[in-house]
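Need tokens for this chain, all 354 residues.
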Amino acid sequence: MAETANIAEFAKKVAEDLFGTFLWKTRGPCDTNWPCEEPDIHGKKRRKKLREGEPDGEPQTDQTQNPDSAKVAVTHPTDIVFYYDEPYSSHRTYINCDLKSYAASTIQKTEVRKAVESLARALTCLEKSATWRTRFVEDDKSALYAGMLFVYNHDGEYTSHFDEFLASSSFSNLDIPRNSKLMVLGPREIFWLANVADEIIRMRGKGLVGPPESCRFFYPPLVLAKNVQPSARAATIEMLTGPWIILKHRRQGLEKDSVLVFYRGRGERVEEFSMLFDYLMFHGLVEDGVEINVRTLMPDPEASAQFTKAIDDYLRCIGGGPEISELLKEIRYESMTQVRRVFSETEIGMTHGA
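Here are the structure tokens for all 354 residues:
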């Protein structure tokens, strides 16, 4: 599952474009290594792997050539760091990323596990690392930390059940710090998010979505918490992996924000849309003068009919009058144009050689 330098750039290019659309920002250098804060623990594990001739996902240096040495140099890699402000606290989340780009034939369960273990080791060290904080963390922000393995299939041919073999792996022995998160985005997750990002960009080009500065992803006020950070405009990782992504934006010439909903389901059942309507109504998003557009990717052939039926069923359920009926029936439902990004190694190589 080896990556060439050009192939490795595929994942970086996709990640930067994708998460930039979701209003994540980057900080610090890319493709860098930093010293381990627990060399006795991580070095012991690494010596064992090197002695057995097993790759461990960590960068190799001249000091690691002798696996019997007690002074195996241990460093952790950072491909890129993204950050965003949390909506319900004063914290800023920093995500230490391991970006992988593989062809369909080279995605293997064992290699993914090794990458997850490597990322977990890095996560245990970065909170303690003065080097990591100096490079990536702003001094005036309370930080939360996360690790993300980003597994991108660059040839667009991956059809195996990545989520299934990930679920079948045991990660119970991972030592992840309290209040930290470790996530894996596989080919299916990335395909969904890349299509959502592409749809936002194309709609913006047609004037159907406002400029980035007028956009913010929607987080409802909670009973026990408020949206305390006006700067919290980005989609959190929880939203990106949830059942829907909701973007509020101000189109030119409109007095109120419009609402764009990316619904992850296929719309096979009326109940799916009923739950979405209930969410929109409960949080006050359905109101006069607010455009609401719901979009799905690869929907069921009967999804549009189910959507219309769901509005009628929902109105009967809540006993809605003519005003609510008119507002709900103004919600537009459309399918998204499916886009599958396929990169040529030669193309990337020529781009970087230009």
